[in-house]
């Protein structure tokens, strides 16, 4: 079984493959710790995924690296400010029962429009 703390990438993981450049994505931010790219199936005018380069399964695992978790939230705010008016909703689906389908932690940044009237 993959050890999500010590193994930094998983060759079978779609987001590791996007990070490696093997699958194309529309990147809106990248640095040495995270990348951010537009969701394939947007649920808001701006729908971006902020993804740590290191393969952590979900936000429970990411909480083991508080600095990296904080960086994900900082990048989320920057993206919302650059691509929309700065207001945003931040969602970590955690576990299949909560709708998580890609088991490489990612923050959904939803922004633009009137989000209060929308469901995710
Ligand atoms: P989850 O359901 O795990 O919280 O979110 C996974 C998200 O990844 C979904 O919103 C889905 O549309 C998006 N997604 C899945 N595969 C790809 C892909 O290959 N490229 C991009 N840009 N988004 C993807
Ligand atoms: Zn991965």
Structural description of this entry:
This protein is α+β, with helices and mostly antiparallel strands. The protein has three helices and five strands; from the N terminus they run H-E-E-E-H-H-E-E. A five-stranded antiparallel beta sheet has the order 1-2-3-5-4, with helices on one face. Strand 2 (34-38) and strand 3 (46-52) form a beta hairpin. The chain is globular and about 40 Å long. The termini are far apart. The model is unreliable at 1-6 (pLDDT under 50). Bound molecules: guanosine-5'-monophosphate and zinc ion. Residues 10, 13, 15-16, 55, 104 line the site of zinc ion. Residues 14, 23, 25, 37-41, 49, 93, 99-102 line the site of guanosine-5'-monophosphate.
The helicity comes to 10-25%
Principal-axis shape? globular
User: What is the beta-strand fraction?
Assistant: 15-25%
Q: Which secondary-structure class do the elements indicate?
A: alpha+beta
Oligomer: single chain
Tell me, rounded to a whole number, the average pLDDT: 92
Amino- and carboxy-terminal Cα gap = 31 Å
The value of Rg in angstroms is 14 Å
Strand order of the largest sheet: 1-2-3-5-4
Instruction: Count helical runs.
Output: 3
What are the defining features of this structure?
alpha+beta; five-stranded antiparallel sheet; disordered N terminus; binds guanosine-5'-monophosphate; binds zinc ion
Give the structure's gist in a few sentences.
By secondary structure, this protein is α+β, with helices and mostly antiparallel strands. 23% of the residues lie in helices and 20% in strands.
Task: List the topology elements.
Layout: H1 14-19, E1 27-30, E2 34-38, E3 46-52, H2 59-62, H3 66-83, E4 89-91, E5 107-111
Antiparallel strand pairs: 1-2, 2-3, 3-5, 4-5
Bound molecules: guanosine-5'-monophosphate and zinc ion.
């Amino acid at each position: 079984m993959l050890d999500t703390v010590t193994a930094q990438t998983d060759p079978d993981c779609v987001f590791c493959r996007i990070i490696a450049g093997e699958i194309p994505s529309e990147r809106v931010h990248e640095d040495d710790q995270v990348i951010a790219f537009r969701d394939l199936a947007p649920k808001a005018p701006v729908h971006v995924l902020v993804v740590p380069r290191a393969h952590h399964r979900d936000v429970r695992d990411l909480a083991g690296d508080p600095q990296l978790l904080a960086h994900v939230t900082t990048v989320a705010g920057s993206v919302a400010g650059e691509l929309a008016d700065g207001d945003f909703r931040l969602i970590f689906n955690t576990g299949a029962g909560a709708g998580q389908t890609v088991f490489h932690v990612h923050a959904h940044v939803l922004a633009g429009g009137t989000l209060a009237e929308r469901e995710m």
